[in-house]
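Appendix B. Extra example for self-study. Work through it before the problem class; the solution is given directly after the inputs so you can check yourself.
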Amino acid sequence: MHIDIKAASLQQKRQAYKHLAKRFGEDRPASRYEEGTLDLAPETNFHYRPLWDTDHELYDQSRSRITMKDWYALRDPRQFYYANYNITRAGQIESVEHNFDMVEKRGMLSAIPAEWVEEISFYLLPLRHYEWGANMNNCQITALGHGAALTSPTCFAMGDRLGIAQLIGRIGLAIASNNETALNAAKDAWINHPDWQGVRKMVEDSLVIEDPMELFVAQNLAFDGIVYPLVYGVFSRESDRRGGAAISFLCSFMNEWFEETGKWVDAVIKIAAAENDENKALLKSWFTAWESRAVAAFKPLSVAVLGAEAGAQAIADVAATLKARAAKLGIA
Amino acid sequence: MSVTAPKKLSLKERYRILTRGLDWTTTYQEPAKVFPHAEFEGIKIRDWDGFVDPFRLTMDSYWKYQAEKERKLYAVLDSFQQNNGQTAITDGRYVNVLKIFLTAITPGEYQAHRGFAMLGRQVPNVGLRIAAQMQSLDELRHAQTQIHSCSHYNKYFDGLHSFSYQHDRVWYLSVVKSFFDDARTSGPFEFLIAIGFSFEYVLTNLLFVPFMSGAAYNGDLSTVTFGFSAQSDESRHMTLGLEAIKFVLEQHEDNAAIVQKWIDKWFWRGYRILAILAMMMDYMLPKRIMPWKDAWEIYFNEAGGALFADLARYGIKMPSTADVANKEAFRLSTETMLTFYQMGHASGFHSWLPSEDELKWLADAYGPEWERLYLPRFKYFRELEAKGEHYYNPSLPQLCQVCQIPMFFTEPDDPTKICFRDTVYNGDRYHFCSDGCQHIFENEPEKYVQAWLPVHQVMQGNCGGATIDDVRKYWAVEDGEDNYDYVGSPDETMWKGWQADRLKVGS
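Solution. Structure tokens for the complete assembly:
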């Protein structure tokens, strides 16, 4: 059954903003993603050169060696704009809260064997500093990348990485009965433990990458493409086996997030690589260089957590998966 | 593992652990290379940890609060569209306020988004960086929600269709663009003082009154709902601006002189933008809120006065040009309106003469001197209109090198004389609308000689061609639709049609 409501209908003069209609090739209604993203950043007639970078205009595509006829080709398949981004994350955080509640109510953390808690503290908690590096890198791309199609999702990624860093921090508090001890020990490992120094050096080196697209490839494809499958995949499965399933449970957001965000990262790189051969060669060289850094950096941790043989195998498997992913994007 | 009862953490403790602990001092790369913008402005910071985070908002809470606000806002926007809320505004003229809003302010929100991202990366303190990052997200929110809340109006009214394209090109929009370009091309501390303090803290209320209260007074459910929804973001931004300036001033006594110079500069830069808002309040909102000079009195002289009294302990004084702004208060809106009225052929929104009632309201608000100076001009323009000779100024105006507004402001102490200032730099003469703008230029001439001045660009043939038709095309101003007087415009015809339909018997 259907109730009919009569409402006055008024003659519309146009369906969409003109810059959108021009892109569509027709005057059709635009989605909120399209309205809030396309052609949003200033493009021309800049007034002053930045005091901090007199070689470039304020918005300047030559900050990257990647060239695009249209930077707005780099669309986000998730079609995130601010509202649906926040609403999506708020929904996920509700599940996270639920998970924390359940773990606490059932005393699930106290059931984890002490030596495995030590191990979790060693491999998981220092990653909040890795996430903080990822936050800074996506923030940098947001500040200096070209076109809002790229820089709005990097801004969301910036927020995501802070959120994940804080989630790891909460786990660190939870396993230490809300004392800072575990997090302090993790920070000490990040700064001083030999197994972590490759990762820290890699992250610090990424903080001074000048090309925003190189930074995008390094952080969002090469580093994350090793870290997430290794830590939240392989290490989590190991954790389940060793009685630490509660930790995998608390990290389920990271798996969900990586899968979702990977679709966007892949889309950006695939389109940029398909644009021209120079792009493809550049993206490939950046990926190869940073991916091998990431593999080398995480190997000691993999070995420390899984043992020499299994650890080496795990990092090799993760690297092979990432290379296959890169091949699909046209940059292997 | 034996777990003792969890320690109780205060919100403040919890926030500190989850944020302050994230940062570390880099050793594989020198900190100066990781934060290359931190020192070049000469601001001295003894202890970065002295910055007190004003909000203590973790990301999970941010997502939750913001998602809740967005759900409510978009429910209203959907309803507004479904029910043609645009027919319920006070008058079709009102939409011209939205045209200015979307073409001038929304792209400014976007610039603030990118600027706060820069700050959120470059400041070597984790608390300040997170606050800046959240503001960067907020500013993107404001740009997008404004585009979404104006989207429905664009389907019916002219002048909203090419907002971002026009922001890069149209003459009066370069006033706002150059303001944000100026802030963004500065270092992190100046940006913070320019946008975080001077704009957000000192001037935001003056921006919100004409737009958001204006929307509330004029039945614009779409925009006013955005306004209410953005209020809590804005108060966070104001708090950040104030905390940041206090932090900088407390860190080293040498900072006060630099900060004072920036306050003087950014007060005047921001105040010049407000000229167009003054015009909106006094001439464009069909239902007026209050005269510009009252808003200025309340939000600048009273609120700002208290603020600067509070900052006096750091040696900070009221901006040196505030007295000029006070002298201009009774005429600012009128001088601006009279200019746009004459430039109607070259604008992306409509202008019109005030009605008799409106002139009486203005005369009551602004007193005998206003009547003596301006009533005859309105009378004269009205006589021309009656003869079918609406006056449009065919010449291109001279622009101020700094604020980029046409040189129509008058001498602080003589409202009958245009205020001209000039200075010679590297053999070229530059022109200014005021002492304020001249001083800004003289402090950084190498910056302001670069300005992309729309009139110069038109003259040099960089804006589509030699005729006004060519230039209007370059601006994406649709001739005969977006421009000229509201009276006789397609907007007016449509609006009158809707009004007539209201009382018709249903078909």
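Self-check: Chain B touches chain A through 102 residues (CB under 8 Å). If your reasoning did not lead you there, revisit section 3.
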